Amino acid sequence: MSSQILLSGGDKYYSYSGILFGDVSVPATIPMITIDNTGLKDSYVVISPFYGAPISNSGGAQIGITIKLDNVEIVKHKVYDVRGDMVENFPLFIPRNSKLEIISDNSTANNTQTRGATLIGYYL
Predict the structure, then answer these.
(1) For residue 42, what are the domain limits?
(2) pLDDT (tens digit per residue) in 41-77
(3) What is the pTM of this model?
(4) What is the pairing mode between strands 115-123 and 72-79?
(5) Reduced 3-state DSSP string for 102-122
């Protein structure tokens, strides 16, 4: 899923990517969530990435996320050894009518590692 779904009260929304993975080719990025327009109100969002077991823990094996707001990178977070205890939540303020993208970054060693993200947004 990569769209924005309003909750029943209309003051919150969510999105989730499901479990994604690359293939044996070399995609440098894998799109996880894209919201083309966040709506007519400013939002406070919390983005929670998750990762499966690392395929490789070699020095060049990296996986992480990039968060873009209106095509500008505002967060770029990568780690060498992704374990559950290293996952962070990213709270962000999102201006109204913004395009929000959450993209998985990876190295060739971890293309097939599972990953994903969830997002909850609160209209202000």
Answers:
(1) 5-123
(2) 999 999 999 888 777 666 666 788 899 999 999 999 8
(3) 0.86
(4) unpaired
(5) EEEEECHHHCCCCEEEEEEEE
Cβ–Cβ under 8 Å, residues 29 and 105:
yes
CA distance 42 to 102: 18
**Amino acid identity, position 95:** P
Reading the block at residue 63, the tokens are 């996986």
Asked whether the beta carbons of 16 and 33 are under 8 A apart, the reply is yes
* CATH number, position 52: 2.60.120.40
Task: Give how many domains the chain has, as a whole number.
Answer: 1
* Residue 25: both structure tokens together: 């080719």
Distance between CA 2 and CA 38 in Å, rounded? 12
The per-residue pLDDT for range 67-113, each reduced to its tens digit, is 999 999 999 987 655 554 556 899 999 999 999 999 998 877 777 78
36/51 Cα distance (integer angstroms): 25
Q: What is the DSSP string of 19-58?
A: SB---SS--SEEEEEEES---SS-EEEEEEEEE---S--S
